[in-house]
């Protein structure tokens, strides 16, 4: 790799004017959204619901939507933090080729980033698995509350991606709305574990890797292949990779630079002297 191992993040960014930026959960923790993994890259909690379990088991869906109803209250009001703003500023300076995020919170766009690929979709949209109609998650929240008013009075610790840690409760009476058009099964318009990332998103991102001159990973352990594949592609193309992450990443052996800091602290220099 061409980057000297002692260079700083600022020097890395200065040296590479067409950055492919890849972000993960660590980018949003300062917005109050918990992440999934510890510093070793292991799960902090039970892994998220699997796609097959969601579509095949009513009790799994009841538990999912009950937790989502409670978790949505704070998740839906999360705001961008200075890491999001710093990356939006990089884009305004013309220094990014694309920003690919594994997050589903829409906070990069809220901070002003425009060239964004939401690799795993967006939690603010709902998709019908029968007719493919997309609808607004806030409308579904109102329908969930109308059908299950007493659940709206519960509170629980926030979990990643709009989930909440509701345990030991009876979910059997929880009512789930169907699609208003066809009566089909509703699912958040995000990629669940066990589900494939849409090919067009992957293809667009891989094309952007080839146009970029370096890869910058912000707040991701890259333990999931859907993100790691871009580090692999950059490495195979001889493009240097820098990562900001607390703890181990799956791509550590491929990195030209590793910054073991929280994202906001590591990127603060990009906002120095600028209105954030």
Would you summarize the structure shown here?
Helix content is 32%, strand content 17%.
Task: Give, in spatial order, the strands making up the sheet with the most strands.
Answer: 3-2-1-9-10-11
Radius of gyration: 19 Å
Beta-strand proportion: 15-25%
Give the overall form: elongated
Largest sheet: 6 strands, parallel
Instruction: Give the helix level as a range of percent.
Output: 25-40%
Going by helix content, strand content and strand pairing, the class is alpha/beta
Total beta-strand segments = 11
Q: In DSSP terms, counting alpha (H) and pi (I) runs of 4 or more, how many helices?
A: 9
Q: Your description of this structure?
A:
By secondary structure, this protein is of the alpha/beta class. The strands form three sheets. The chain has a six-stranded parallel sheet, with helices on both faces. Strands 5-4-8 form a three-stranded antiparallel sheet. Helix 7 packs parallel to helix 8. The longest helix is centred in the N-terminal third of the chain and has 18 residues. It is elongated and about 60 Å long. The two termini are about 35 Å apart. The N terminus is likely disordered.
Identify the notable features of this structure and list them briefly:
9 helices; single chain; 6-stranded parallel sheet; 276 residues; alpha/beta; elongated; 11 strands; 3-stranded antiparallel sheet
């Amino acid at each position: 790799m061409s980057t000297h191992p002692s260079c700083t993040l600022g020097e890395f960014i200065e040296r590479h004017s067409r950055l492919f930026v890849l972000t993960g959960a660590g980018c949003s923790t300062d917005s109050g959204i918990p992440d999934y993994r510890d510093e070793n890259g292991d799960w902090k909690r039970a892994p998220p619901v699997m796609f097959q379990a969601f579509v095949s088991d009513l009790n799994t869906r009841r538990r999912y939507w009950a937790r989502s109803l409670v978790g949505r209250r704070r998740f839906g009001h999360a705001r961008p933090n200075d890491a999001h703003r710093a990356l939006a500023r990089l884009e305004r300076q013309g220094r990014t080729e694309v920003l690919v995020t594994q997050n589903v919170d829409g906070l990069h766009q809220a901070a002003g980033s425009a060239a964004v690929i939401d690799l795993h979709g967006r939690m603010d949209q709902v998709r019908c698995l029968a007719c493919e109609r997309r609808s607004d998650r806030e409308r579904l929240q109102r329908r969930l509350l109308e059908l299950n008013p007493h659940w709206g009075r519960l509170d629980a610790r926030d979990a990643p991606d709009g989930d909440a840690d509701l345990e030991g409760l009876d979910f059997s009476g929880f009512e789930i709305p169907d699609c208003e058009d066809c009566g089909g099964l509703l699912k958040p318009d995000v990629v669940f574990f066990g589900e494939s990332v849409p090919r067009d998103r992957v293809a667009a991102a891989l094309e952007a890797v080839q146009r970029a001159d370096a890869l910058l990973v912000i707040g991701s352990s890259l333990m999931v292949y859907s993100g790691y594949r871009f580090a692999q592609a950059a490495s195979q193309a001889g493009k240097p990779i820098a990562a900001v992450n607390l703890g181990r990443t799956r791509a550590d052996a491929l990195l030209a630079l590793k910054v073991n800091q929280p994202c906001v602290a590591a990127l603060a220099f990009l906002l120095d002297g600028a209105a954030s």
